[in-house]
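Please, structure for the following, as tokens.
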Amino acid sequence: MNTNSVKKQGVTASDLQYFAALQESAALLRKKAAEIDLEVHEYELLIMSAVASGEAVDNSCFTVAVKESSRRCPAWKEHYVSLAGKEAAEAILQATEPSITRHVVVAPVGLHIVK
């Protein structure tokens, strides 16, 4: 549908029907995406647990690694530096506990996994 046609001829029943169908489709896709995200998270936890406990992992087709990253940079740091100076911000930064995140990375055999 061309949105310019709405301006020229008003909103038709067909436009409204199409819009309602789009809304319904979008809601179904959001629901399915949430279900997939949950399943991905569950599998990620399962794989991380297996790798951490030293269980056998079939590496015939894929290599698996648990990527860990830590972040200690508060979002407000740049703004704080402009107000209080770099030394004060650095002191707070050093006193901030890093948040550690872990993700499972799977790649086809032969493809290098960047850790």
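The first strand starts at residue 62 and ends at 71. The two ends are 46 Å apart (CA to CA).
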